[in-house]
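Schema walkthrough. Field components (list of strings):
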Amino acid sequence: MEILKSAIATELAAQSGFAAAGLDAQKIAENLSRPPKPEMGDLAFGCFKPAKDLNLKPNELASRAATGFAPGSHHALVQSAQAAGPYINLRLNRAAAASHVLAAIETTTVGQDPEQWRFGNSDEGDGKTLVIDLSSPNIAKPLAVHHLRSTMIGYAIKRIREAQGWRVVGVNHLGDWGTGFGKLIAGLKKYFPEIGKRAEAGDAKPLGDMSVAELNATYARFSAESKENEDLAEAGRTEFAVLEQHIEALIGGTRAAAGAHGEANFRIWQHTRELSLAEFERMYAHLGLSFHQWPVVDQQHARVLNAQPDNFYRDHCLYVGESYYVAAEDLCRRIIADAVANKVAEESEGALVIFTHGKDKPPLMLVKDDGATSYHVRDLAAAIYRHRHWHANELAYVVGGEQKWHFEQLFKALGLLGHEWSSQCMHIEFGLMMFQQADGKWAKTSTRRGTAIMLEDLLDEAVKSVREIMAAKNPELAASADAERIANAVGVGAVVFNDLKNGRRNNVKFDWDAVLDFEGESGPYMQYQFVRMGSVLNKFKQACGNLDNHDYPPYFKTRYSSGPDLDLDLSAGDAALLALPEEWAILQLLADFPAAVARASREYEPSIVARALIDLAGATSTWWSATKDTRIVGENANLSLARVRLVNAIRKVLGRGLTLLGMSLVERM
RNA sequence: GCGCCCGUAGCUCAGUGGAUAGAGCAUCCGCCUUCUAAGCGGACGGUCGCUGGUUCGAUUCCAGCCGGGCGCGCCA
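Field assembly_structure (string):
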């Protein structure tokens, strides 16, 4: 409706009743809404707010403004206006409205590449840059289901923002630094002495082919033992201190090198990072994301980055681990020095802290009492780096709501350090992934306690279910060469859509049955409606090419039966023939789509797009059934052409929406 | 105890201060010779947690309570 509202408001503003009441197009557009029942009208003007401004009773304004309404030409969008209490119910020239909507979609969605379907795009963000922190898993821990949230919510926001004209830099703030790595190194050396020996001997791959699960288990085992044993805890702290000293010496800091011990720890850490990334890559590829190490060193990508930065940042997110700010930029120590010099930081209980919210609230910790930097410093460094390097207008962090306090402190600290742009930092919080325990209660997931479900297992399970359903419902396709690609797209899409369809702040109670339920408001349902629309387009082309079909005029045959698949010039379709209430319902939803994308962008809320698609797909399916008898592509050639225009529009809006959410499309399923 | 998030149908959730609060799942009843039934229609299902307040009007805004979740100084 949004793309119709301004045109309608302009028409109404020219009406004597509205003009006499001093209502301009802007004011009218703001108060247009859809009546609860279609028989009341196609659109309604609510008089509450304008009446208040004019010191009138809403009912009075409604009857005054509606009086003397005279429709313009027969092309005018508004056909009649009738006061109904505090509302003015409007009836539209649906044919004109339909034509308006379809033309808007057709001119912005040329071709078959969903990335070029620009309906719903805007130039709101032109020239602006958003740096968005997404996914950000910890090294040496496997990706579990809850990592899906940050990854896919972040990725969807990235794509939605890009559709609004923004340059969006996706940053994977890998948890690859911190005292935990001291425990891991100490554990590896304790339980697998040969690893320590290989590292000391200069082996660049001291861990062999150890899996991330094994690394995690080693960490967990050592962590548990060191709780009982202070010597082990001390060993962990030492290993990390040595690692940090080694890296700081590498970048020419003030600290002395840590010798062979430091080199060995560095090798273990680097290999841990490599092994972890290799495993993450597999998952990201599944989900359709691509990450590059930052800074970009390989020539091919560096060229793209230099020549076409927008393309580069659109196609790739970046790995910028926490260690980057320690190892490459030395930003951490400079921030600490700066904070001390400006008396923002102070010493407290042996640590260096910033009291961001007064003395009675826990402070933000810069340096711990063992001399190691805390992750807060690295987050400060990351924010400053992102703002400086990418000239970011906004910094967004897609991180779970349990870290809300951390980000409040972080942004406040940035402000205290003199960065006035801290007000442009946003924590895009999302709800926790909860698992049902044996006692029936729901609790936060824990990789350590083994209650988390591995992301890979979930995706595999979803793809497997899709394969089974495909084998039962579409055996021919299941046996074809496309089967695996389609099963992947539909299965992964099911998991992704399931995660994005609800408001991001809600906690998610993980439920296998719900994730693998492919009926109703599900990813496969969305894909299915998209596939149906494609089938109709193919059917239409066949019908036009069929010489026995005498009802189709000759020009149909030449015009539509050839050419690239699904690429049809439908301008001859007469929108006035779309007279079914189901068709009008769809046209309204199509018209609403751009506003949904814009709002999703503003509110960092992909579920708004997902909901718009659920509504559109539902209305489409209802229409599909309502046309069972006449068919969409039926006996009446001109009616069929008009309906095919609608099918084409639905397909492209659905397809665009799904790709905005980070899903891949399929033509059959 | 303090702070933040949440509370809408049996379950999972939409709902931008406005007309009679909507979906999906589950249950029950119908609908496949046709462009894919991963579908469609219908039935059943609500003191919008409670109590006040603001407002012409509150599920929506405010306050207090109740219930659930998360966080609260050296994990990230």
